[in-house]
């Protein structure tokens, strides 16, 4: 990495929480296990004169359709860090499931960076299956189709650098077009894995989350994210509440809601 590129600051911002059983989070489950909640995040990458938002969460209407709760709009979480969503120029979409592709209306000026095969997947023949489309929200998908017609989407095929020190990499597995985000930080290369790794335990135990398009690709993805990150401590799962306890909070007023990732975990 060129020394002319300063390391980025990276935040995880929680916008929702869901109580559930551990057996619902693993393909091979022990039905004697107890509860294991999920947290829902978006991420902010800031530095070198730019802000990149990773994923869009879901909004109040999407929460109502799913019978889920929402702590705040993802865009409101950004405001806690002084970022106005209306002024964000770049949003990276890891995949188009409902909890990563909502609240688009809060980002009217953003360029959307998305794998081409993901929008093909979300609008193609697989969506004729209730099982395959379960985690998609048709209203959110339609918002992205409109964004195509508005010439707002940067279609990606595989891996590409979006800015010096920020790149995206196709993984697949969870969805056909799932991508992860690699970021240069003061601790080295950090990977925002999103749902390529829902929970630390999914990767640690090689036991995938049960919503999956291709199991083989998801298992291979565990290895790929490990190769992209400099150390395991810098692989950030998409839904693990442990993220909020392992990484430092940048301000006491954000406790339990926002943590800073780029300086490594508290134990590192």
Could you give the topology of this structure?
Layout: E1 9-18, E2 38-47, E3 50-54, H1 60-66, H2 74-80, E4 90-92, E5 111-115, H3 116-122, H4 130-133, H5 138-149, E6 153-156, E7 159-163, E8 166-170, E9 179-185, E10 188-194, H6 200-204, H7 215-228, E11 235-237, H8 243-246, E12 258-260
Parallel strand pairs: 3-4, 4-5, 5-6, 10-11
Antiparallel strand pairs: 1-2, 1-12, 2-3, 7-8, 8-9, 9-10
Word description of this protein:
The protein is α/β, with parallel strands linked by helices. The protein has a single domain, classed as Metallo-beta-lactamase, Chain A. The protein is about 20% helix and about 25% strand. The chain contains 8 helices and 12 strands. The chain has a 7-stranded mixed sheet. Strands 7-8-9-10-11 form a 5-stranded mixed sheet, covered by helices on one side. The longest helix has 14 residues, at about 215-230. The protein is globular and about 50 Å long.
Strand percentage lies at 25-35%
Helical residue percent band: 10-25%
Number of domains: 1
Main structural class? alpha/beta
Second-tier CATH architecture: 4-Layer Sandwich
Low-confidence stretches: none
| Chain-averaged pLDDT | 95
| CATH fold-type name | Metallo-beta-lactamase, Chain A
Distance between the termini: 22 Å
Main sheet, how many strands, which sense, barrel?
7 strands, mixed
Rg calculated over all Cα atoms: 17 Å
Number of strands: 12
* The top level CATH class name: Alpha Beta
Compute the number of helices.
Answer: 8
Spatial arrangement of strands, main beta sheet: 6-5-4-3-2-1-12
Compressed to H and E, one letter per element, the order equals EEEHHEEHHHEEEEEHHEHE
